[in-house]
Amino acid sequence: MSLYKGHIAGGFFAFILYILILVVFFAFKPTYDVLIWFGLCILGSIWPDIDTSSFAQKLFYGFFIILDGIFLISGRFKEAALLGFFALLPIIGKHRGWTHSISAAFIIPSPLLILPIIKPELRVGGLEYYTPVVIGYLSHLILDKQFKLY
Question: DSSP states of 24-55 as a string?
Answer without folding.
Answer: HHH-----THHHHHHHHHHHHHHGGGGGSSSH
